[in-house]
């Protein structure tokens, strides 16, 4: 049981929380009940179940995202992940609506295709990078946004697609560095990840370039809005400054000695970046709703 709980990695949901908070911040009159249920379903069920399913098939012996010393996986982990997924779909249908339940089902199928050996998108560098960023970012953003706005058509509206794309751009930038310390383990399983293809220096450079585009994108997005335009972007820059400073510090260290691209430094980067981005969206919600 301890192994199952560990591999669910509930704390890892914190790293994906900015997508939900961004969607919530852009709604004028969110449905409170559906907002709470969507948060619970995603962060306490869907994401942990996906972590567990991935851990079951990877069977890592070295550090993985959020766990430095993973316990050996048990057969119960596979059944637990599938049961939570099934329960999440039912809960989404009865507490939210059919459209959100369908979105959850699609996300679950994609996450299983990422890890399951019959498909294993994870072993294809560009495909896995695109799919993870698209579905953990834009797809979840639009799913949450349409639910708490009670408006399914937002999936196809231009005004919703830009912020959705920004969430994916953030994840496309962030995703390769989550793989940077696992090159040997991934290569031994035949998972040729994007980070492995790019190398350590290439991964750090790639991430820096995409984060630059993401920052420009947020600047453009807030310039298109009529309220708190400059204030929102300045707030974004202030909140993200600690993450930027640490990233540049880490990049310089890795450039001199690639052994610094290790689990501990990667998790520090993940945590600092997530705290900064979550803080920004919490403050954005506070200013937008008051």
Summarize the structure.
With 290 residues, this protein is mostly helical. Helix content is 74%, strand content 0%. The protein is globular, with a radius of gyration of 19 Å.
Keywords:
290 residues; mainly alpha; 74% helix
**Main β-sheet description:** none
Note the total helix count.
11
Q: Termini, distance in Å?
A: 44 Å
Instruction: Tell me, briefly, the overall form.
Output: globular
Radius of gyration: 19 Å
Q: How much of the polypeptide forms β-strand, as a percent range? A: under 5%
Order of helices and strands: HHHHHHHHHHH
Q: How much helical structure, as a percent, in the residues?
A: over 70%
Q: Give the class from helix and strand content and strand pairing.
A: mainly alpha
Number of strands: 0
Mean pLDDT: 89
| Residue runs with pLDDT of under 50 for 5 or more positions | none
Architecture overview:
The protein is an all-alpha fold and 290 residues long. Helix content is 74%, strand content 0%. Helix 4 packs antiparallel against helix 5 (98-115). The radius of gyration is 19 Å and the shape is globular. The chain starts with a helix and ends with a helix. The model has no long low-confidence stretch (mean pLDDT 89).
């Amino acid at each position: 049981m301890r192994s199952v709980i560990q591999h669910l990695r509930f704390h890892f949901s914190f790293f994906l929380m900015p997508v939900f908070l961004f969607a919530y911040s852009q709604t004028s009159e969110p449905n409170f009940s559906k907002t709470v249920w969507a948060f619970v379903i995603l962060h306490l069920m869907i994401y942990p179940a996906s972590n567990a399913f991935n851990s079951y098939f990877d069977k890592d012996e070295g550090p993985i995202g959020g766990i430095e010393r993973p316990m050996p996986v048990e057969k119960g982990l596979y059944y637990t992940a599938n049961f939570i997924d099934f329960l999440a779909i039912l809960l989404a249908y009865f507490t939210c609506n059919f459209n959100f339940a369908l979105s959850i089902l699609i996300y679950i199928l994609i996450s299983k295709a990422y890890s399951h050996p019959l498909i294993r998108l994870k072993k294809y560098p560009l495909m896995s990078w695109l799919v993870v960023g698209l579905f953990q970012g834009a797809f979840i953003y639009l799913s949450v946004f349409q639910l708490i706005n009670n408006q399914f058509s937002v999936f196809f509206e231009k005004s919703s697609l830009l912020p959705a794309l920004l969430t994916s751009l953030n994840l496309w930038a962030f995703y390769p560095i989550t793989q940077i310390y696992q090159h040997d383990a991934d290569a031994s399983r035949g998972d040729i990840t994007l980070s492995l293809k790019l190398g350590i220096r290439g991964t750090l450079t790639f991430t820096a370039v995409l984060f630059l585009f993401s920052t420009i994108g947020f600047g453009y997005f807030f310039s298109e809005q009529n309220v708190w335009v400059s204030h929102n972007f300045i707030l974004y820059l202030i909140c993200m400054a600690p993450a930027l400073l640490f990233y540049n510090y880490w990049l310089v260290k890795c450039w001199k000695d690639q052994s610094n691209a290790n689990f501990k430094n990667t998790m520090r980067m993940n945590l600092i970046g997530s705290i900064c981005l979550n803080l920004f969206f919490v403050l954005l919600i506070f200013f937008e709703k008051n």
